[in-house]
Amino acid sequence: MTQTTASVDVDVPVRTAYDQWTQFESFPQFLGFVESVTQLDDTHTRWKVKIGGAEREFDAEITEQHPDERVAWKSTSGEVDHAGVVTFHRLSDTTSRVTVQLDWIAENLTEKVGAALGVDDRAIEHDLRNFKAFIEDVGNADGGWRGTVGREAR
């Protein structure tokens, strides 16, 4: 299993960063490997991605979601086996930190070599910088889902 963790500080309130992140269908605007995301319902998405030049599709389920704190997911079917969590941290009234942790299984030689050379780490860091530029340029989220999923007692 391969794992990467990366963070970026964004000059928007934590609510703005979180709300934008819950707009999964906007991911292709700042995540370089994402071709499309279709929101099927509150907890299920369908993804088309391009990894190492290969197009892949998979479905994912949101396993935990708490407004302004975290969104966790795992793949449920398809060609990509992974799980992840993004957390949101208030640094000030106008600044927040977004941290992404991804765990996945490299499927082919290209992916295994890329993981060993840190290509995946750099790609995630690059995409977080793209998210920073995107959300700071817009200045507010273009929507947001404030529901809670999993561990309801929080």
Descriptive notes:
By secondary structure, this protein is α+β, with helices and mostly antiparallel strands. The protein has a domain of 100 residues: START domain (Alpha-D-Glucose-1,6-Bisphosphate, Chain A, domain 4, 2-Layer Sandwich), CATH 3.30.530.20. Helices cover 23% and strands 42% of the residues. The chain is built from three helices and seven strands; from the N terminus they run βαββββββαα. The chain has a seven-stranded antiparallel sheet, covered by helices on one side. β6 and β7 form a beta hairpin. The radius of gyration is 15 Å and the shape is globular. The relative contact order is 0.28.
Which terms summarize this structure?
alpha+beta, 7-stranded antiparallel sheet, 23% helix, 3 helices, 154 residues, globular, 7 strands, Alpha-D-Glucose-1,6-Bisphosphate, Chain A, domain 4
Topology:
Blueprint: E1 2-10, H1 14-21, E2 34-41, E3 44-51, E4 54-66, E5 70-78, E6 82-90, E7 96-104, H2 109-116, H3 119-138
Antiparallel strand pairs: 1-7, 2-3, 3-4, 4-5, 5-6, 6-7
> What is the 3D form?
globular
Mean pLDDT: 87
The run of helices and strands is EHEEEEEEHH
Instruction: Indicate the CATH topology of the domain at 2-22 and 60-138.
Output: Alpha-D-Glucose-1,6-Bisphosphate, Chain A, domain 4
The class by helix and strand makeup works out as alpha+beta
Largest sheet properties? 7 strands, antiparallel
Look at the structure and name the CATH superfamily of the domain at 2-22 and 60-138. START domain
For the record, the CATH class of the domain at 2-22 and 60-138 is: Alpha Beta
> In oligomeric terms, what are we looking at?
single chain
Give the C-alpha Rg.
15 Å
Structure annotation, total helices: 3
By CATH, the architecture of the domain at 2-22 and 60-138 is named 2-Layer Sandwich
Biggest β-sheet: strands ordered side by side in the sheet: 1-7-6-5-4-3-2
Strand content: 35-45%
Low-confidence stretches: none
